[in-house]
Amino acid sequence: MELNWELCRIFYQVARCRNFSRAAAMLFTSQPAVSRSMAALERELGCRLFIRNRRGVELTPEGRMFYAHVEAGCEQFRRGREELEQAVGLQSGSIALGASETALRHWLLPRLDRFHALYPGVRLRLFGGTSRQAIDELKSGAIDFAVAAVPGGGFRALKETRLCPLRDVFVASSAFGQLRGRDVPLDEVMRHPFICHKQGSLTFEFLESMCKTRGVDFAPAMEPDTTGLVLDLARHGLGIGFLPEVAAREALAAGEVFALRLAEELPSRSISLLEYDGHTLSLAARRLRDMLTEDAAAGDAL
Hints:
This is LysR family transcriptional regulator. With 302 residues, the chain is an alpha/beta fold. It has three domains: 5-86, Winged helix-like DNA-binding domain superfamily/Winged helix DNA-binding domain (Arc Repressor Mutant, subunit A, Orthogonal Bundle), CATH 1.10.10.10; 89-165 and 270-298, Periplasmic binding protein-like II (D-Maltodextrin-Binding Protein, domain 2, 3-Layer(aba) Sandwich); 168-267, D-Maltodextrin-Binding Protein, domain 2, CATH 3.40.190.10. 47% of the residues lie in helices and 21% in strands. The chain has helices spanning 5-17, 20-27, 31-45, 61-88, 101-118, 131-140, 186-189, 202-213, 227-235, 245-253, 283-297, and strands spanning 50-53, 56-59, 94-100, 123-129, 145-151, 158-166, 168-172, 183-184, 194-195, 240-244, 258-259, 261-262, 269-276. The radius of gyration is 32 Å and the shape is rod-shaped.
């Protein structure tokens, strides 16, 4: 039997007030309307819930039993309403976000700072790692969306919103000074010890595909886990590193490494927001996503 929720709500107020008239005032209705509602509820349940006395009403044993459950339900309803109001006002809520190292360090972090300052009650769960790992987390359903450094397109079932362009460079220390100041063909670069993100990463696949397209052998000498290690190894003269220019910017400015002038033009990549098209996001996740895409539309660059 499915009970009428409105009758239960009226019963809850009568049981709390122990008086039909006071309950009617709390419910902004009339005392006769409350009396009719309680009579209807008693008929529906097949038992008496109240006993009248000079001060108002008292609960019967059956009424006390029923009230214990109705009270718990009303309290859950009240808490649910409060949580929903807080979520709508972005006073609470949670976001699960995946981000690649480059995207997080060089584009996303200041925007997360701004979001947290505006909505300190929203809990952020961040899954870091490579672009491939961020996309895998998205496909598994563990996160709401991913922000990652990716080549354009090629993500079936995923919607991609480009946030900013990403320029890649080959960098080397003075140990490779003979390559400075001239156009260097890609096949010549690859004849030197070469440092690239590990196999299985999108960066590895991106560069491997570019080399295959141009008929150039691709055999990295070193495959570190992070962009920071690619730069460190190149800085120490252990090979020519391939990484986003923004990740090498300080080392380039300090003269610790120099950027090779490649004879061929590199394909473009971008920092993009990836999500499942049509997937319903929470209000908090939608607000963060909208802030990021608004920044992108305004032309915010690395």
